[in-house]
Every structure is written in C-alpha cells, then in structure tokens.
Amino acid sequence: MLRLLLCVYLILASPGGIVSAEPAVRPNIVWIVVDDMSANFSCYGETAIQTPQVDRLAKEGTRFSRAFVTAPVCSPCRSALITGCYQTTIGAHHHRSGRGVEKIHLPRAVEPVPALFKRAGYYTCIGGPLVDGSDRLGKTDYNFEWDPKIYDASDWSGRKPGQPFFMQVQLHGGKYRGANQNQYDNFAKRVLKELGSNVSNDAVVLPPYYPRDPALVEDWARYLDCVRYTDKEVGDVMARLEREGLLDQTVVCFMTDHGISHARGKQFLYDEGIHVPFVMRGPGVEAGKLRSDLVEHIDLAATSLALAGIEIPGWMQGRDLLARDYPPREAVFAARDRCDETVDHIRSVRTERFKYIRNYLPNRPHLQPNVYKDGKLLVERLRALHAAGELSPLHERLLFSPQRPAEELYDLDSDPYELENLAGNATYGQSLETLRGRLAKWERETGDLGRQAEPEKMYDSDMAVYLSGRGRKSDQPTQTEKNIELMKRWAREGR
C-alpha cells in the first residue's frame, strides 16, 4: 500500500501529472555551431569541394534538407537558438543590442538552454575548436543579460566520472577567409599547409545574382576553403569523441548560425541568408535518414532537451523534431532588424513552394550603408562596378535599386535563386494574399516586438559602444557616425 501511495504521489506531483522516463544512460549532447556559412557541403549537393566529415554525420544520422534560421545575423540567431524562442518574441532581435547602459532582460519564465541542462545534472561547456588547447569560453553573442555560471568550462574534461555533458563547439566558419586581399592570401596559405590544396577559382560557380568578377570569384573560392576547413574541424570533434570512447553515447548536432556573408546572404531573408545545413547523429537519431520537411533552428533546443530526457518548457517555441507525434511545419518564419548601426525591418514566411518577404522600410536601398559590410572587399567591388555602370540590369535591380518593393513573392520551384518578384503578378494573387495573412498572424501570435521602432535611447546606448571602440584619427566624423546620422535623418523623413 505504501508503495502504491508513493507511486500515486509521484505521478500527481510531477509536471503535467506524468513522470517523464529518463533513459538509463543519458546521452551527451554536442552542438557544433559555425559562423557565416550556407549549405555548401557535398552532402547538400556542392560539387566544387568534398566534405567527408559532415557527409559522415549525414550518413550515420539524419540530414535536414530544409532547415532555416529565424534571423540571418549572428547575435539574434544565437539568442534564439540558446532559448528555443523567436528573437522577436524575447526582445533580442536587433543585432548586438543591449550592450550599452540600456540592457535587455529575458521574459521572466524564459531561461537559456544550458541552465536547463545544468539543473538536470549535465556538465555544461562552450568552447572553440577542440584541438587548440584553449580554456577560454566560446562565442555566445547573446543580446540579453545572462549568468556566466550557466557554463562550467570550455570543454567536458572537468566533469565528474559518468556525468553527461552539454557542449557547444563554436567554429569560425566563413569568417576564416577575412574581408580583404591580405586576409584571403593568409588564409589560403594556411589551408594549403593544413589541407594540401586550395579551391581553384576555375571551380567556382557563383549564384546568378552576382557578377562573375575576379574579386568575387576569389572571395568565393576562399569561402569554399572555409567550408573544407570547417569540415576538418568537425572531424577533429568526432575524433576526440572516438578517442575518449564517447561517440556512441553522444548526440552530435551540426548547424551554422546563418548563411554566407555576402551581399544577398548574411543580414537578408533570401535563402542564401537563412537556409543552413543541419545534421544530427547519435543515440535516438535515425541513421541514413533524409528529412525534407521545413524546420527552424530553434527546434534544436527542444529536440536536444527531449533526447536528454529533460522536459521541454511550455514557453519554448521550438519543437521536438524527433517526437512520435511531431506535426511538420507548414511554414518557417524569419526576421531581420537593425544590424550594427543600420536600421531595417524585414519579415518573411517560407513554405515548401513560396517565399513572401515584407519590407517595412521600402524607401531604403537593399545595400544600405553599413560599416561592417562596406569594409568587405566583395562589397567594395560591387559598389565600384555599380559606380562604373558595369553591372547587368539584373544585378543593378537586385543589388542597387534605390528602393525596394514593399512585398516580394518568389516561386521557389521555378525560381530557386529568388530573381523574379511575383508580388505584382495577378496569377499569384491568391498565394500573395495567403502568405501575407500567414505572416501577419505569426507576428501577432508570437508578439513580434519589432513591430515597434527601437527606442532612440536604446539605439544611442548601443551606438555608444560601437563608437567607443573606433577612435577618431582626425576631427572628421567617422563613417559609423555618418551612418548613424543618416539613419536618424531617414527616420525623421519617414523613410
């Protein structure tokens, strides 16, 4: 009788009235998160290079062919990933926000995922490449206040015997190639030394929305070298897990934080900016499986908790992708807001066939002034080609139109590169109306905080941080200061 009463008590006292059964041996969870990289891996169809380590993950696990981030730039994406919530819901949607005197705090119920793992007895760690010997914590880049104690160390070596661990391996990815010719050359030498070869410019096939200019081709070749180097680093992680006898007890998840840093990639809601590779391998993950349904990167949080036998909080907006009763998403959503000093407000909804983009500031150009992007050789070259009148009408329209359409609609089946806007085509009127309504509903139901302009007090607070690290060499305003004043002037003009 006492045993029966105890069982009844445990059932009633547990969340939801049900005791969640934990696996006999809780798996380790490893997230490999890569900067600035699209799905240019051979298992995703890239033919210019081979990526055997990521291909191995795909062969031994599950590959998601239609995975998308909810933000196309580092800090909002990473803020969403680490909470399993849309960055627009938790107020972390502006890039590098909350860094000044004005702070951003998560809604009361929301916690970063490492805190949930730690409370469940996991050893939590975050670091860089696992062969560099560094004890520094890896990249976080969260746009809200958080307790550093949610992480125990930079890797799992300090855990107690038998203690499961949650590890984030942060890799530099596309950032390795740098932004100028000198950095290209230095990285090319590094790749040649460590991998034995470089990607030839002749092997590069650019997307049709970029001109085949030598500078852009070389940049893309070095980017593909970044992909190869990232693949090597993934192999390093797998080798250490195997060497320590941990691989069969570990779920390895591979994902990037957004697409390639380019004129239509990073910071924008075209597929080049939001479509990412996503592969999982390990206990509880089906081997050799291809998933072609739409998924969002915030689903990784819920899926990882479920694999560890940890209850998924009710506030989490991500879904357990491996649940038996998982309802496939009919659409995925993404948002771009202020990036550095450059103010913008763009939203998108993507179904299997269509992409709808809403530009809330259509009177601004696609390539607004932005110190970060304008400092890249590839953007400098594009601007030079534009100034010299050497771009094709297609490239002029896509990259340098002084204004943007308020609405964009693309049929991804016939136009995967998103070249022809169908928003004004009466044939697609019903699709436009449906997706317009679906996006508006998502904005309402998720409490999209980007519907209101960022308070000038918060903007000024963050800009003070940007300016403090960029001292003047003369009495002339810096380019950052000029861009800030331009953003404020355009806002006053209603532009």
Neighbour order of strands in the largest sheet? 3-4-1-5-6-2-7
Total count of strands: 11
For the record, give the distance between the C-alpha atoms at the N and C termini, rounded to a whole number. 73 Å
Cα-based radius of gyration, to the nearest Å: 23 Å
DSSP summary: helix tally: 15
Element order: H for helix, E for strand:
HEHEHHHEEHHEHEEHEEEHHHEHHH
Structural class designation:
alpha/beta
What share of residues are in beta strands? 5-15%
Question: Largest sheet, described in full?
Answer: 7 strands, mixed
From the spread of the alpha carbons, the general shape counts as globular
What integer is the average pLDDT?
A: 94
Layout of helices and strands, plus pairs?
Blueprint: H1 2-13, E1 28-34, H2 52-60, E2 62-68, H3 74-81, H4 87-90, H5 113-119, E3 123-127, E4 165-171, H6 181-195, H7 214-243, E5 250-256, H8 271-274, E6 275-281, E7 289-296, H9 299-307, E8 332-336, E9 346-350, E10 354-359, H10 371-374, H11 377-387, H12 393-400, E11 407-411, H13 429-445, H14 456-468, H15 479-492
Parallel strand pairs: 1-4, 1-5, 2-7, 3-4
Antiparallel strand pairs: 2-6, 5-6, 8-9, 9-10, 10-11
Helix pairs in contact: 6-7
